[in-house]
Amino acid sequence: MSFLNHQNNQEHTLPDVFTEVKHSVTARQVAEMYGIEVNSHGMACCPFHEDTHPSMKLDERYYCFGCQASGDAIDFVSNLFQIGKREAALKIAEDFHIPFDPKGRPGRGQPVTPEQQKEWEMRQLQKDFREWRGKALSDLNGDYRTLTERAEQNAPTDRDAPFPRAFVQAYNDRTLVEFYIGVLETAPRETQINLYLHDRAAIAALDDLVNGRGKPRASVREKLEEKKSLLRAQREKSTAPQKQRVAI
Ligand SMILES: [Zn+2]
Asked: Is pTM beyond 0.85 here?
């Protein structure tokens, strides 16, 4: 746990959206992105006033000699689309694929390398996994208790009769629950994360089922019947060509 706690202190290494967008794109780049034609002198027809001759200069920032409109990339997009500054920054981040930390603090603007981005995604994954694991373990432990009770309540009483269906199902489900708990409590972290990535839907479905929120599942007998008829069909298929061969 100490390893994880240590990480919490350094959760936000990417800058917030404003800082990151300001560091990443110029007014000229966003203008061009959104369809403003900028000539080789960095001049464009101003979109903020009736302009027939290019009177806006665009570089890092923009300035219009006609209407004195000015600002940075975020101001430009905010005015162009008539949206708020934050919305504008988010729009630019999305359209230019600029990574940022939604909870990041401003003023830490540094160019983000692919390694930093990867590290950040890894941290996000670990964080999501930790949250999921806590809840999954608590659900699974609850399921274990429920299924133990259910199995006891439906325990076979007649030695010669087949096991009651509810007993078999509770027992089988509990085996699966036990397996998942085992992985989450004792398996190496990588295995646990793999379980999170690939099996979390199955675990949620199992929890729903145990708590009566899931769709009714085919009973063991129904499953057996299904398997039998499938086998029959396969046998018929495989014997059919043989008969033909014999006929030839
Ligand atoms: Zn203008």
From this structure: no
